[in-house]
Predict the structure.
Amino acid sequence: RPALGISMLEDYMKLRYYGEKGVAVSYVAELGPAKKAGLRGISKDQNGRIYLGDLLLKMNETEINSHDDIYHALDKLKIGDSIKITYSREGKKLTTNLKLESTNDIKFEK
């Protein structure tokens, strides 16, 4: 199965911090496609201040507003496909491209 290499924030937390649109990235796998494309998850600095991760808005031209939206979009794609991601970071709308990898090849470590 193709994957982005991210963990997503639960919907109730996303609503609290981001609103209704998009899917919030909580963690990005270190060597995964999302990291290679420059996407960021939630982080904390040395003083304990928390920084929110990116908010995914679109995969190619498909709007993303839930975990199901991501899974349905990925179901139509293959490992190795390149996709355009539209996302929001600190209030700015940005785009990047990434190449999907197999869920088996992505390691999630914290």
Observations:
- The CA atoms of residues 50 and 95 lie 23 Å apart.
- The beta strands are 2-3, 6-8, 23-28, 43-44, 50-51, 55-59, 62-63, 82-89, 92-99, 101-102.
- The chain is about 20% helix and 35% strand.
